[in-house]
Amino acid sequence: MRTPKQLYPQTSKIDTYELKTCPICGHLLKQEEYTNGRKIVQTMESVIKIAYLPKRCLNPDCDGQGTNLRPAG
Ligand SMILES: [Zn+2]
Prior knowledge:
Blueprint: E1 11-16, E2 29-31, E3 36-42, E4 47-53, E5 55-57
Parallel strand pairs: 1-4
Antiparallel strand pairs: 2-5, 3-4
Zinc ion (ZN) is lined by residues 22, 24-25, 27, 57, 59, 62, 64.
């Protein structure tokens, strides 16, 4: 019987969305209080745990309303 290989994260990385204002309407963005997209990534050198903090536009008339903006990374 084979034992499943386990991944042990060596470093963790949390990204925040780079922009302070909305790319669609220019309104200020609100930093969400939770992290999203948490996952464990295995690279050639190490195992990294990553997550990001999404931001949301505060303008109720904005086309981007309701979508979380993710960091490019
Ligand atoms: Zn907006």
